[in-house]
Amino acid sequence: MQRILTLLLILSLLFTVSCGLKRSNPLDPNGNPQIVIPETVSNVVCSPSPAGAVNKFVSITWSANSIYSTDGYYVYRGLAYNSTYAIVDTVFTNSCSHGSKPWHYITPGDYYYKISAFKIYPEGRLEGRLSLPTFVRVPV
Asked: CA nearest 108: which of 87, 135, 136?
């Protein structure tokens, strides 16, 4: 009986001590009420370059977030709905023309784009959730 009571005492102490979670991430909104989480981007629209265009591009627009919660946006591109997405551009307005810069090379094909907002703090950038994927087909 004494062993059971000792074991219960040890377990209750472990449980009590383990609940004291110390937050050390300066961008954690639960640990710092001054941190604002960027809103999720919505109404993403992708328009491809016209068929026969020499330089292929995709024009992307979305509803702008409030300046209170957003300083800029990351543009992600993937090759399938559930594929891995890579950042292809960083912009500070609610539009992007992917393929218009020399380092943005686009070939004809099917693509999916996602957008996320970020807020800049002295400790770094806090990124919000990714938008839903938006499909676009770039014609030959």
From this structure: 136
Report pLDDT digits (tens) over 70-94.
Answer: 999 999 999 999 999 999 999 999 9
Q: Is the pTM of this model over 0.70?
A: yes
Q: How many CA atoms lie within 13 A of 18 on its CB side?
A: 6
Q: How many residues does the chain have?
A: 140
User: What tokens appear for 71 in the block?
Assistant: 């300083």
Q: Which residues contact 4 (CB under 8 A, 6 or more apart)?
A: none
Q: Please name the amino acid found at residue 116.
A: S
**Can you list the domains of the chain with their CATH numbers?**
26-138 (2.60.40.10)
* CB atoms near residue 29 (< 10 Å): 13
Q: Please, which residues have CB within 8 angstroms of residue 119's CB and are 6 or more apart in sequence?
A: 36, 37, 38, 69, 70, 71, 125, 126, 128
The tens digit of pLDDT for each residue in 130-139 reads: 999 999 999 9
